[in-house]
Each structure stands twice: as C-alpha cells, then as structure tokens.
Prior knowledge:
The protein has helices at residues 64-79, 93-106, 121-131, 144-150, 162-177, 194-207, 225-238, 250-262, 293-308, and strands at 2-3, 53-58, 83-88, 110-113, 135-138, 156-160, 183-189, 213-220, 244-247, 270-274, 285-290, 316-319, 322-325.
Amino acid sequence: MKIRNRIGAVLAVGLIATAALTGCSNPATDGPAAGGSTGATKLPANCSTDKPTIGVALPNTVNPYYVAMQDSFKKHGADLGYDVKVAIANDSDSNQLSQVESFIQQGVCAVALNAVNSGPGAASVKALNAAGIPVFTVNVIISADDLKTQNASFVQYVGADQTAGGKQMGEQALKDLGADAKMTVGIIGNPDQIPTNQRDQGFKDAISKDANAKVVQTVNGKIDPSVSLQVTGDMLQGNPDINVLFADAGPHAVGALQAVSQQGKADKIKVYAFCAADEPLTSTYAACAAQEPAQYAVILLDNLKKYLAGDTVEKEVLEPLKVFVNGQTPGKGEVG
Length: 336
C-alpha cells in the first residue's frame, strides 16, 4: 500500500486497514508478490498500436466529482498518447456492465473502472478478466466478497483514504465543540458503497472518544442532493435534538445544508462533510474533507503506463484528503 504525501493543506493521517473495510488485504487481488501487481506478460493487441485505447467507465456526470475525473482522464490520457473512451452509466449497474462488455468487443487495451456500486462492480471486473483486459479501479472499492465469489481480480485501486477522511471530520467536530461536548449526531450516508461506509466508520470512531456523543440515526442520501434534502429533513423532524450532521459525500452535504436552512436550524446544527463542490465553509457548514478526483485519474493512468511497460505497481494507492474549515472554500475539483 502506498500513501502519497502532498505539499499544502493536506493533513497526514494514519491508515486503518482491515479486511472488512479496505481492499488492502483483499484475497481476490493479493498475488504472490507482496509489494504489488507485476506487469502483464500478455496484453491485448490494442496495447501495441501507436495510440492504445483506454476505456473509462464512470457512474454519472451529474456529480461534479465525476466531471473533474472525466476531464482529467481525457486530458492526461491524451498527454500520454492514449485514445480515451469514456462511458457514463447513469448510475445503473446493468448499463455499466453493458458498457464494459462494449469495451471488450472493441478490444481496448485496458479499462479504468469507477463502479456504480461496490458489489455489482465485481461482474465488470470478471468480464474484463475473462477477456484478458487489465482493469484498474478508482474511487469506489469493489467488494472483496463479490470478487472472491466471481474469482475476479483487478490490477490496482486508486482513491482517497476514506476511513481517515471520516476520522478527520470527527476529530474536527471534537475540536470545534469540545472533547466532552454533548453531540447528538445524524449521518447522511449510502450503505451500498464501501467508501461511504468507511467514511461513516471513521467519523464514528473519532467521536467515540466523547462519552457524550451518540449517533441517533443514519439515512440513505443515495449520492443525490434531492434525496438527501428529503431524508435529512425527515431525520431532523424525527430527532429534534440533533446538533451535528455528518454528510459522507458532496451531494449529501448539499441536501443536508438545504434541510438545515429550511428548518431554520442554521444556528443550532453544525454540518461536517466530504466537500460539496464550490461550497464555502461557514459557522454552520463547519468543515469538509476534499478528495481530488482529477489527481486520481492522473495517478491511475501513470501507473497503467508503468504496468503496460512490464513494471510492478502498488496494488492500492490511498491519497490523503485536504481539510477545509470556516472561512475557506474548496478549489476547483476538490470535492467529496
């Protein structure tokens, strides 16, 4: 596993690597070489062309996160001499599998897969394995159990240190409110995604140090601001004592902030989150952790190039997150 250090506002954090929460000890991706995945010995014919084709499978382009990632794949891919073809699944697992099968029919050199959901994504990995096409995964962690069931494996995962990001937000809440403050917490999450579950666990682990902090409810925002607005509003009405919200994705943060405003509780609730795009931090929107999807695309393509050249690459690259607080605004592409 490799963590890249960054100059600037990045806060270095420890890794929590457990089989239940990360792909680090995933038996479906662990090979005989402990240090990483060795370069492929047999590659698709397309890899030997003057301009190899790289398929990129993304969930949607509604979320600014994926817009930034798509733009980076196209730009950096062109810089490296690749023909990058992007497929957008519109948040449908079946659409994404069909798109991956189309990449296979086209005979692409390799695929970068940001799965729609952690479990169903294993079917796409398996299809690419069967076709002999290298697959790198990004952002959404593919379920280790589903990979094992499918007898499937990917070359490398690139993404944020999700658990650490949630922990950073929990620690910020303790810093803002006090180590023994009364915190009645609601979480806007997405139980279908391993990364969001990791963020939630990191947040809960951090606030568990405060005996007066408790999580009273977790709702499913479905990575959709409109859904998040509705379920957060319902949660606040059902739990009027909530004074802290943790929104574990940018679209969840957007909906949570709208719900707090609509119910006139901006002076009573603090929201901690993975960053919403271009949203300034305030006394209510107290802190957020930012991923850098454009950078993940760059890292993945650089490592793909090394792999195609026969070099060994790390099986997992976890990037630290930037933390923004009251008075700051995340930059372009710094989103949750």
